[in-house]
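Duplicate of earlier report; DUF177 domain-containing protein input re-posted below.
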Amino acid sequence: MSAGSGPASRPRTASRRTPDAGFVLDVISLGRRPGTMKELHRVVTTEERIGLDLIAIPVGAEVELDLQLQAVSEGVLVTGTVAASTAGECSRCLEPFTGTAEIRLTELFAYPDSATEQTTEDDEIYRIVDDTIDLETVITDQIGLELPLQPLCTPDCAGLCPECGVRMAIAGSDHGHEILDPRWAGLAKFAAESPGNGSPDSGATNTDH
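Output:
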């Protein structure tokens, strides 16, 4: 379940699934009286990957939902936080690393017969279907926006040596390669093969008697 091109990439409606399980929330008990609130704390284990190519919430991770559901005139307002562990690959040194991601939600889910529902397109607002709210799409969209396109294992990751490919983090500060200008390659070879390797005193004839 990787993030797509954004909220407009998928319908903002809940699918027909078992109410009040996983990312699906049953709102029947909340009622429709504006101002009515309900706290929700839930841990959901992911069945699919959620995120981007280089970093995501992996399969089997626990996603913690700490939310408040509030009935308003046009629907149910969902606010709160969603937190989970992440796994990724550093875009500089290509090493795997883990971290955490936390997003804040403030989303309105429109009632089926509300003015908001009737005057908006499918990709403009989330909707309540069969008295349930499906947070899967919301979380997928928000995580896709929160995670970096080029994740780093550490903010100061030095990446890989461009010459030999070794990780600079383990290569040491004195790691380097002598790069010879190709225009001087022939001269360097001649100097290396000459007697005495170019020393001014090497090979000199002793003329003292």
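Confidence is low (pLDDT under 50) at residues 1-15.

Merging into the original ticket.
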